[in-house]
Amino acid sequence: MGRNGSKPDVSAAMKLLASPFVTSVLLIAFAVGLLLLAPKLTAFRTPGNQQGYEPVQPIAYSHRLHAGELQIACLYCHSGATRSRYAGIPSASTCMNCHRFVTATMGAVRAEDELAKKEKREPRQVISPEIAKIYAALALNPATRLPDPKQTPHSIVWIKVTNLPDFVYFDHRPHVNRGVACQQCHGAVETMEKVRQDQTLNMGYCVNCHRNVDQNGLAGSSASPVQLTTWAQPGRSVHASTDCSTCHF
C-alpha cells in the first residue's frame, strides 16, 4: 500500500526497470562481474584434473638444467619406465654419480674463482645449498662426501606431480617401449625449472590418443602428432586398446 492507502504504481516500476538507463547499468554490472570471476573460472578443474599442478619440492631440482641444458636422458633417472608400471624416482645415490664431484653450479664456482683472484687467495669449495640437501640425506660430510657418523641418513620426500585417479590403471612399459616420448604426456619437461602437470590426462585425452595411433600409426603422418623418441620407428602400426577393462579393472 502507498502512503495514502493506495496501491503502489506497479506499471511505473516496470517502466523504470525497462528503461535504457537501468538496462545499461545492469549489463555493465554483469560484465564487471564476469571480469572479476574470469580468473576463478579459468582455474576451475573437474574432479581428478590436476593440470598445472606445480608443487614445491624438498630440493629445487631443475629439469631445465639437467634434461635441457645438460641433455641428461629421462631414463637415466627414471629407469623404471621401461620395465615397470612406474617411472620411479631416482635414489640419492644416482644423484651422487655426478654430485660426488659437482658441488655447485658453474656460475657459482667461477664467481668464487674471480673473488679469490681479487682477494689473492686460494678458491674455497663452493657447495650449493640444494646439493647439500643430497649430502645430508645420505649422511655425508659435504666437504669430503664421505660418511659422517654424526649424521643419520633420511629419505628425500619428493612430491608426486602427475597423479591419476585410483580407479585408473596406467603402465609406462607399453608406451615407452614402443617409442612414445615422455614429452607426449609430461610436456616439454626439459624447459621446466619446476615440473608441473602439463596435460589434463583425463579419459578423453587418453582415448583420443589411442584412437589416433590405431588409425594413423605412431607419427606415421601429420594426422598422428604423437611425439616419439629418437630410436622409435615412425609409422609403426600399433593396437592401442580402447576397451574399458584395459585401464579400469
What does this structure look like?
This protein is mainly alpha-helical. Helix content is 40%, strand content 0%. It has helices at 10-17, 20-42, 63-69, 74-77, 92-99, 106-119, 129-137, 172-176, 183-186, 203-216, 244-247. The longest helix has 23 residues, at 20-42. It is extended, with a radius of gyration of 29 Å. 10% of the residues are buried.
In brief:
With 249 residues, the chain is mainly α.
What is the strand and helix layout of this fold?
Blueprint (H helix, E strand, L loop, with lengths): L9 H8 L2 H23 L20 H7 L4 H4 L14 H8 L6 H14 L9 H9 L34 H5 L6 H4 L16 H14 L27 H4 L2
What order do the helices and strands follow? HHHHHHHHHHH
Percentage of β-strand residues? under 5%
Strand count, sense and barrel status of the largest sheet are: none
- Give the distance, in angstroms, between the N- and C-terminal Cα atoms: 68 Å
Q: Which descriptors apply to this entry?
A:
249 residues; single chain; extended; mainly alpha
